[in-house]
Design brief:
Elements lengths: L2 E4 L3 E6 L12 E8 L5 E9 L2 H12 L4 E7 L1 E5 L5 E7 L25 E4 L2 E3 L4 E3 L2 E4 L14 E2 L5 E6 L7 E4 L1 H8 L8 E5 L14 E5 L10 E6 L13 E2 L5 E6 L4 E2 L4 E10 L16 E2 L4 E7 L5 E3 L9 E3 L2 E7 L7 E11 L2 E13 L3
Parallel strand pairs: 18-22, 20-28
Antiparallel strand pairs: 1-17, 2-4, 3-4, 3-16, 4-15, 5-14, 5-17, 6-16, 7-13, 7-15, 8-9, 10-11, 11-12, 19-21, 21-26, 23-24, 23-27, 25-26, 27-28
Length: 374
C-alpha cells in the first residue's frame, strides 16, 4: 500500500519535578503543565525516536523517489484540562539520548536512562541547552524559578517545527506532518536523534490553576494496539484505464466483487498484491458465443481501499483520495499492502469504496486476513 508505518525504537517522558527519573519502559508518554506542591508548575515532555536504517529503507526501496508525506501519529490514552486552544510542538532533538529501563515512581527511581537533567543516564551527559552542531543551532527551555536545567533540546529553525492544536471537543490523537524533519534525517542534513513533543512555550511553567493541560499517549511499550507510528504516505496509483484497456468499466453499483490473492495469513515481512475482481450482477443482454461472466471488468478510477482492525472496528488505513486509490493493470484492479506496518497477531478487514454513476458506495464483503509473528 502507499501507507507504510514504522514503530519507535525508544521513547520516554521527562518530568521537571523528578529531574533524574527515567521512564523508558512506561506504557504512557505524557505532555503536561500541572500545579504541584506549593502551587509550583511541573512540566512533562516526551522524546521518541525511529530507526535511521528503517527510514532509509522506506525512502530507497518503497517510495523510490516519489513525493511523500510523513506523519508522526500518537494515540491518546487520557486528556484533561484542555479547556482552551492548546498547541503541541514537535521538534527535532539535537542530542543523543538513551531509553533506559525505568518506570514512573519506581522505588527507588530508575536512573539508567534519559531524564529531565541527563540525556544518557544519571550523572552523565547533561542536556546542552544552547549551542550548535552539524545540524545547526539548537536550544532548550526551562524555568529557572521552577525547574533545574534540562528538559531536552531541539533545533531552532522553523523548518524543523511541526505543530498541532487541540480544542475542547476535538480528537486528541496526534497526527502531525513531520515531512521536513524526516527528509532532513534521510539526507543527513540533521542527525536523527528523534522528536521531542512538548507544549508550546506559552503553556509551560504556568502557575495558574486554569492552565493545566494534560495529555497522556500510548508508548511503544503499551500492551494495546495503539503504539506510536511514523507513517509514510505516497501515491503509487497506476492505471491502464485510458481508453485502450482490454476490459470495460462497470457502470452499475449492482456488482459482484471478490478479492483474489488473499491466502488469509501473512507474516510481517510480506508485501501482498490484492486483486479486486468485479462483474455486474445483472449484465446487459448481448448476443455472443462466450459467457458474459468471462469478460474483464474494472472499477471506476474513483475507487479506494481501507483496512480496519476487526476487533475494534477502527480504521488502521483509512480511505484516502491520494494514498489508497486502487490501481489497475491488464489483468484487473489491484492494491499493495505492506504487512510490516500492521500489528501482528491481529485480524484485519478490507473495505472497498467506489463512486459509480454519481453514487459513492462502500463494499464490505468480509474480506479478512491476519498478520502473524514469524
Amino acid at each position: 500500500m502507499a501507507v507504510y508505518k514504522l514503530f519507535p525504537t525508544q521513547d520516554a517522558t521527562l518530568y521537571s519535578a523528578y529531574p533524574t527519573m527515567n521512564t523508558g519502559l512506561d506504557a504512557i508518554l505524557e505532555v503536561s503543565n500541572q500545579l504541584g506542591e506549593n502551587g509550583t508548575p511541573d512540566v512533562a515532555r516526551y522524546l521518541i525516536q525511529f530507526d535511521t536504517n528503517e527510514i532509509q529503507d522506506v525512502f530507497d526501496n518503497k517510495i523510490a523517489g516519489r513525493s511523500s508525506s510523513i506523519y508522526l501519529k500518537n494515540f491518546i490514552a487520557e486528556a484533561q484540562g484542555i479547556n482552551q486552544n492548546t498547541k503541541l510542538e514537535v521538534r527535532a532533538i539535537a542530542q543523543e539520548w538513551n531509553n533506559g529501563t525505568g518506570y514512573t515512581f519506581d522505588s527507588p527511581i530508575g536512573e539508567d536512562g534519559v531524564s529531565w537533567t541527563y540525556s544518557l543516564y544519571s550523572g552523565s551527559s547533561t542536556w546542552s541547552i544552547n549551542g550548535s552542531n552539524s545540524g545547526g543551532t539548537y536550544t532548550g527551555s526551562y524555568s529557572s524559578s521552577y525547574a533545574s536545567q534540562g528538559g531536552g533540546n531541539w533545533y531552532t529553525s522553523s523548518t524543523y517545527l511541526a505543530t498541532e492544536s487541540f480544542a475542547l471537543r476535538n480528537v486528541k490523537d496526534i497526527e502531525v506532518n513531520t515531512t521536513n524533519i524526516v527528509n532532513a534525517w534521510y539526507s543527513s542534513s540533521l542527525p536523527n536523534y528523534g522528536f521531542i513533543v512538548k507544549l508550546t512555550g506559552s503553556l509551560e511553567f504556568i502557575a495558574n490553576q486554569f492552565v493545566q493541560p494534560i495529555f497522556k499517549f500510548y508508548s511503544v511499550d503499551t500492551n494495546t494496539i495503539y503504539p506510536p507510528t511514523l507513517e509514510f504516505r505516497w501515491r503509487d496509483y497506476s492505471t491502464v484505464l485510458t481508453g485502450s484497456a482490454t476490459g470495460s468499466i462497470v457502470s452499475t453499483s449492482n456488482i459482484k466483487m471478490s478479492l483474489a490473492e488473499n491466502p488469509g495469513v501473512f507474516f510481517p515481512e510480506s508485501i501482498n498484491r490484492f486483486y479486486v475482481n468485479v462483474s455486474p450482477l445483472y449484465p446487459a443482454r448481448a448476443y455472443q458465443t462466450s459467457s458474459l461472466y468471462t469478460n474483464l471488468n474494472y472499477l471506476p478510477t474513483a475507487s479506494y481501499y481501507a483496512i480496519k482492525d476487526l476487533d475494534t472496528n477502527e480504521y488502521v488505513v483509512n480511505f484516502d483520495d491520494n494514498y489508497t486509490q486502487i490501481s489497475s493493470d491488464s489483468t484487473g484492479n489491484y492494491f499493495d499492502v505492506y504487512m510490516s506496518g500492521l500489528e501482528p497477531e491481529r485480524y484485519y478487514k478490507i473495505l472497498i469504496k467506489s463512486t459509480i454513476q454519481g453514487s459513492t458506495i462502500i463494499y464490505d464483503d468480509s474480506y479478512y486476513f491476519k498478520v502473524i509473528n514469524g
